[in-house]
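User: I'm preparing a small set of examples for a lab meeting where we compare how different chains pack in three dimensions. I only have the primary sequence for this one, and I'd like the structure in token form so I can line it up with the others. Please keep the answer compact; I'll paste it straight into my notes.
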Amino acid sequence: MGKFTGYRCSLCQTEYSVDELTYTCPKDGGNLDIILDDQDIMHHFDPQDIFRSGDQSLWRYLPLLPVDDPGGAATPFRAAGNTPIYNVHPLAEKLGISALWVKDESRNPTASLKDRASAIVVARAREIHAEVVVTASTGNAGAALAGMSASIGQRAIIFAPRKAPPAKVAQLLIYGATVYLVDGSYDDAFDLSIQASNEFGWYCRNTGYNPFTAEGKKTAAFEIWEWAEQSKLVHQEAISIFVPVGDGNIISSVHKGFKDLMQLGWLRGMPRIFGVQSEGSAAIANAYFSDTEQITPVHAHTIADSISVDLPRDGVRAIRAARETNGGYILVSDDETLAAVAQLGSVGIFAEPAGATAYAGLVKATRSRIINPDDHVLVLNTGSGLKDIGAAMQAVKQPPIIEPSLDALRKLML
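Assistant: Understood. Below is the structure token output for the 414-residue chain.
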């Protein structure tokens, strides 16, 4: 019950059966949307079935997911999702808006939103008896795949750029994945991982390539929906959601989650979705502002490594996520991102630069009146600041070094 009936190309709308394809449309290379069996879901389930679930992870949404129950004991694989939504009233006051919440994805088992995608992909890998799962990653997707795989004994191979932050590479190695550091960009690692998966028969998890990644990430939208329904704090359609964008798969997945709920009749109105990109990695925003869906590659350079992408692999759906929800795109500088890291830290949230980029976009949107004083906003922090300590230290003033004496302390306190 509640499983999928096939795939639909996001570009040409061609539909394929469950067993016909694995990754992208052979006609135009378009990303595939997984088609849920809506009639079966509506016949067997309603929102209260979800709300009454005792499962405190993304697996509470199993009726809306295209995989079977993975079973198993309490492992990190069973713990992805169910991240907190914090009321950050001091920042709302500072920005002059009615209400502001931050959904903190750093609380996932490997400290980023990517655990959602990897949990579903690994579940799918088990269903199709894949011996190896491979991905390209600047760190977070790889760590998520390595961690989810390690918890159930699945073999994982990660291709990461040689310049990926050391803390992220350390995660890959600690979880026991086979790691190859590519002397090139994320895009180079992406292309090599696909070549390797085709050559050796590995199951490829790549973002914006494997359609099951979106099915995992869309559970963030399900949690926002359930939180709004249960808390009665705000109507769904009154929320503006700010999402950091690199490849485009997170924002398109959040959009798909809300669309799935609308299709079932479980969501009354669509939230506005805003994508935020770094000025140095703005291929999707550039297309949005040019009123086109044609994505032109850039030479990406930004401190927010998790969203540093030359050629986004899910750009078209990412553009539509903003256009179809009356949202938009916002560009921010690295300096604005670092300032956002510190501002989120002031309310107890330690975001990596990519996650803080979403808040930096909100700051800019309030100044330009894209967001008004009576608006309700939710910012998606996609990962932990512990992923990139080097960047975090650039966001704050360095502490003084003093002699171990009260006299020395008093002099600094004056």
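A couple of notes for your slides: The mean pLDDT is 95. The domain at 76-109+214-394 is CATH 3.40.50.1100 (Rossmann fold).

User: Perfect, thanks.
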